[in-house]
Amino acid sequence: MAALHYDEIGYWTEVKLDIVRDYAKAYSTILAKQPVIKKYLYIDVFAGPGVHISKHTGELVPGSPLNALHVSPKFHEYHFIDLDGDKAKALGGLVGDRDDVIIYNEDCNEVLLKKIFPHCQYADYRRALCLLDPYSLNVDWKVLQTAGTMRSIEIFYNFMIMDANMNILWRDPQKVPASQAARMDFAWGDASWREVAYHKSKSLFEDIEEKEDNRTIAEAFRKRLEKVAGFLFVPEPLPMRNSKGSIVYYLFFASANETGGNIVSHIFSKYRNRMA
Question: Which of 35, 115, 168, 185 has the fewest beta carbons under 10 Å from its own?
Answer without folding.
Answer: 35
